[in-house]
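Readers of this paper often ask what the protein records in our data store actually look like. An entry from our holdings is shown next, in its original layout:
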Amino acid sequence: MSIPVPVLDDRTFDQLVAEATARIPVHTPEWTNLNASDPGITIVELFAFLTENLLYRSNRIPEANRIKFLTMLGISLQPASPGTGLVAFSNDRGPLQPPLGLPGGTVVKAGQVPFLTTTGLAVLPLTGAAYYKQPQTLDDATQAMYQMLYQTFLSTSSDVLSFYQPVALAAPATGKPGPVVDLGDPVNGTIDRSLWIALLGPTGADLDAVRRAVAGQSLSIGVFPAADTPGRVLPPATTGSAQPDPGLVFEIAAPEPDATGNSGLGYGLGPANYTRLPITYADQVLVGPGIVQVTLPAYDQILLWNFDPEEEGTGDYPPRLDDASVSARLISWIRVRYPPMPATDQSSATGNGTTAPSAPSVSSSGGCGCGQSGSQPASSSAPAGLTTTGCGCSGGSPALPIASGPTNMVLAADSSDQPTGRLTWVGLNAATVIQAVPVVQEMLGVGTGTPFQTFTVANTPVVVGSSASNVLIEVQGLDGWQAWTMIDDIYAAQPDETVYMLDPAAGLITGGGGLFGTRFPLGSNVRATYQYGGGSAGQVPIGAIAKSVGLPGGFSVTNPVATWGASDPQSASDGEAEITRWLRHRDRLVTANDFQDLALATPGVDLGRAEVLPLFNPDQPDPTTTWPGMVTVLVIPRSDPVTPNAPTPDLQFLNSVCQWLDPRRLVTTEVHVRGPLYQPIWVSIGIEVLPGQVFSLVRQAVNDAVVAFLSPLTGGLPAPGEDSGTGWPLGTNVRSNDIEAVATRVPGVRYVDSVLMAAADASGVVSFAVDPVPMAGLQLPAATVFVNQGQAESPASLLGSAQPVLPTQVPVPLVPPTC
């Protein structure tokens, strides 16, 4: 039961004037002129006006008091979330030696919005150009010609020629979908599960001087994985602090030095060998954007192969470079390899209910990844532009099968949570940045020795990141300044612990009380080093971060991808609305309602819907099987510019939700955070309109009503008093009767003649005359609606079932027409 807010005085202006006027004959009977023009009545009205204003303010709790009451309840308003991103520095015209060292905390700006680098790096005089070997399919005549010309390169009868085209990984651009290369796809991605980074010196620079400048230095490589992902998983917490694995293998070309010197300066000989680069720092770059810092080898080990004309680009050698301006700046190659999954992890359920056999592991030099042998031995050679492999897989995608007549549909389960080798951008001299402004050693005041003494920093909101160095509170003692430790709950501290509690939104720092944490000592100075910032201004597009006062002449900076995660702070009214929920979950994930409430409160994302499925495993085809200790959280963004009717969370969206839920869950709970699995359906509706109505307008209204009814955000039946639903309910089948009822209620519709539906099952077969369309697990409908006058048109004729749509083939020449 909610407690009603007390009203101190509800009298209005007219009531106050009437009450004062009624007292006049009692206290001053000689006052008989009570007209509105009387000066005395004017004074009464003036005081009634002032009194009404005082009563209004008394009945409204000021904003500061409301925030104070929330603080007394232990509810902290969510501060503004800072934008996060990746930047790449470049030595365009600066000196080659020594490399420019940039510490963490270097300020870069997008206009007037400041960002800080979170990792230090050395800006080497290198730029990177990423290439991959895209598989190509030749016609029979061309393939027969290559087979005849290069028969001698096939060492065994099982070897076949495999053709590829060296393709440069395009840079992301504003307003366009990000480029994606899938290192694990041997058909449409790469032929060798690798991305090749050409290490290029500055234009016009002496390449030998560049090799000397970068030898033994730390190279910072930025990686931005593809944004589309099925979901994220938070496994049960384990002990230990294993070094994070980036998920990729970084190797540098390692030719054999030529003792004769005939190969030339910077060149070597021998087979396609590679040396694994030591990793000094690594983020999990297949899970989220991050940095991998590797150490380059010594000067005499940074080499290129002195190829014969027929060897370049063959086997495990780097791809052939057709651009002479790029090859003239090349000093070496780094191979970023996607390691094969273990054989036990490669089995998966197929559409017909059988289990695909596990594929054998692929050699470290790469390979197709389809379960057959990898590339040819390193010592062999092949013609330019060709690779000999034992893979017999065919290119292209299968045609969309069509089934006619009613079908009992079997819906597909979601795909695995395992990270894939899909990459959008890879670059050199990169660093992660966060939207913040640094404040160093701000004096907060003097300790009084009282319990739970508080200080307030001058700038808010305070940015609290994963690093403890973001906020540093120091107390002056006899031995100098002593750093205190941040704690989430001051009442959990031991009496002798020097800890403090921080409210980032209000900038409030609270010390211990003696029994719970040490008090700020009497007479001791307290100072703070911290970062503040955040807000929606931190969401900047590609190329917006373009200046830094810390860069000398000849150096530049840019952000190759747009920043993410910025949001405005929570208001006091929003915080008051969360009081009931907070008192229920206390910022801990225990019940299903707790998961939903806290997921909806995730800062930095515009979350439109969150659903919780306890004991549900999204990777299993049977949604009725229970999995103890497992919770699946379905999240849907409020908007999606690419697919507005089927909004899907991207990788940064899912990472934000995971980072928010992870510290609040039980350590034994395995949490899966997923987007919806959209089930394509086609709905054909035949209607008759009322006389005098314009059919085109009524048809559009019917289309909008049905799309809104099946929407993941506004679908379903609305609650009493509401205009729309809260999203199509999970596990609810799509029935033609419901669609008919929705269409009938549209103004201008006389009646609905018929409703026909089609959908695709787990194997991709489009089935017609499906009613109802089943929905299970995380599946939600993604509807395409057709409205016709009279009888509903068959979806088979609308989809063109007689000629299934084949994938578009873009021919790419294997050999460039000009040299």
